Amino acid sequence: MFSERELERYKRQMMLFGEEGQERLNKAHIFIAGAGGLGSPVSIYLAVAGVGTITIIDMDVVDGTNLNRQILHYDRDIGRKKTASAEEKLQEFNPDIIINAIDVKIDASNAKKLVGNADGIVDAMDNYPTRYLLNDVAMVKQIPFFHGGIRGFYGQATTIIPGSTPCLKCIFPKAPPGEEFPVVGVTAGIIGTIQSNEVIKYLTGSGDLLTNRLFIWDGMQAHAEEICIERNPSCEACGGRGKKKIAGKKK
Amino acid sequence: MWWQRKEENSREEEMTVKIRFFAQFRELLGSDIITEVPAGTMFTLLITSVVKKNPQGYAAIFDETGAFHEFVILMKNGKRIDIADADRTVIVDGDEVAVFPPVAGG
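Output (structure tokens, whole complex):
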């Protein structure tokens, strides 16, 4: 049951998906990998929408160069752990939800445990090796993986449902080289809000998901389009079936 | 115009294809490029012929041996083309090809 305060807070969106939809959001646990450019809008919008439990992971400290896009962090947070800054802001956005902010580097040894019992993983990472690890965890746990990527004025997003859509490795089998990428904050805002929108639709059972399609945003042309994507029958991550045992030590 | 169309049809050795670049490839090379190439041109040669005059664009897409970087995604008429097959994938008149990188920032 929601408190009076919560009923008021969520009134305008319960007009869309009812108290039942709001209950689903409230019972959900979403794992956000990264509290940076994408992680900021993703976590803010999921927090204000009332996703009951948000786990957000980051290993970095807020740097002055982050502030053009990482809207969770303020000027006063420079030098502070991103997780501490994120937890404080998200809890202020919505005191009625649980925020787990974990200061750790996601790697093969901890990825599965960190994701735990989450209902979905949001990809707010800035590199493909970690994305591939999370893709693997999503396959093993059979939970959706909401992919996003940004560079400059360009961005991309897709929703991966294990067992029914291509996985990240089907779409992008090889990682591009790492770089200090140029970016404007609005690109993170556009792609991050698309990812949040997907999570909200998935949890409330609303609309059609961004599945089997790669959404591509060109901010220079103010033009969005999509490319049809297919499973790769010989995909090394999902074998085209969307299931795979995650690599790593067995206890 | 009809008379131009007739003239184009008579030039059987040339064909018109559209190349679409995305993200940073688009930044370097432009978005939609309509080009004429000889009939029977293969995918790799088509892209090479268009990007070779742009050293930065070339280096973004091809390695020093002239092969596509392994992370580059190739599509022809909405269907994925394996990099390993690009050398022997024939382009025909009216084809639309796409070349894009995985966008990695977050």
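Chain A has eight helices and eight strands.
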